[in-house]
């Protein structure tokens, strides 16, 4: 009966019970430490080592490589191409077409080398493939318009006009600073990605 009363008291006064048990455990720990010191034994010590190095997991590395074609810049262009066909004793035939296209610049992560990422503590040094054109056929034929047309024109003649529009757009691309801008955009995007992984300092370079 006394045992039941004791348990009942402990249950209804659990805060006091918890306090007493805590004090007993602290006293026991201090007693154990005191005995260890008196006996010349080194007390157990807990040490926490700080390691600022950040390691990407294999899954994270794979996710980056699986990006594939990573676009950093798109450049919309428009070209007007005209051609004429002279006919003896007849009016000349003429065809004027408007071509529109979007050239996409970026990298292909399949071209990443084995040493594309170097880690020093919380610093990531990233070496990317050169900026390249990601889409070979960049003229949107669905949005190509015929502005003016007289006479009859073969598919071969229209293909020549298409190739001329393509050549002019690529020439404009080479004269522009689009590749430099794509590199700047790439540095910003890759830096943001690496900082999301925990790196504080990120250096991004492109292979030449």
Q: Which keywords apply here?
A:
40% helix, alpha+beta, 4-stranded antiparallel beta sheet, rod-shaped, 5 helices, 208 residues, single chain
Overview of the molecule:
The protein is an alpha+beta fold. The chain has two domains: 2-38; 58-206, no CATH class. Helix content is 40%, strand content 29%. The chain contains five helices and seven strands; from the N terminus they run H-H-H-E-E-E-E-E-E-H-H-E. The chain has helices spanning 2-12, 14-38, 58-65, 155-175, 178-196; strands at residues 69-87, 90-108, 117-120, 123-128, 132-133, 145-149, 201-206. The strands form two sheets. Strands 1, 2, 5 and 6 form a four-stranded antiparallel beta sheet that branches. Strand 3 (117-120) and strand 4 (123-128) form a beta hairpin. It starts with a helix and ends with a strand.
Q: What is the H/E order?
A: HHHEEEEEEHHE
Characterize the biggest β-sheet. Answer: 4 strands, antiparallel
Number of strands: 7
Q: What is the beta-strand fraction?
A: 25-35%
End-to-end gap: 89 Å
Q: What is the number of helical segments per DSSP (H or I, 4+ residues)? A: 5
* Class computed from helices, strands and strand pairing: alpha+beta
- The whole-number mean of residue pLDDT values reads 81
Q: C-alpha Rg, in Å?
A: 37 Å
The number of domains is 2
Amount of helix: 40-55%
Which word captures the global form?
rod-shaped
Low-confidence stretches: 10-14, 32-37, 41-50
